[in-house]
Design a protein that fits this description.
Elements: H1 2-24, E1 34-38, E2 41-45, H2 47-65
Antiparallel strand pairs: 1-2
């Protein structure tokens, strides 16, 4: 269990450091992401970005399990 927590922590640190780079690649502004901007209200729901991130994480975990 401790190994998994350490690995998860390292992954979160790497993702946090890579976040500015991922923003430049267009993640968060893909077609299918819902953005509603009104006067004083901003709603953002990244459906497509969430699906892509989920697929990448699933692929990485699948590779490491083999």
């Amino acid at each position: 269990m401790a190994r998994w927590l350490i690995a998860l922590g390292i992954i979160l640190i790497v993702l946090g450091l890579a976040w500015p780079l991922l923003g430049r690649l267009g993640l968060g502004h893909l077609p299918g992401d819902i953005r509603i901007e009104r006067k004083g209200v901003f709603f953002y729901f990244p459906i497509t970005t969430g699906i892509i991130v989920s697929l990448v994480v699933t692929l990485i975990l699948w590779i490491f399990r083999r």
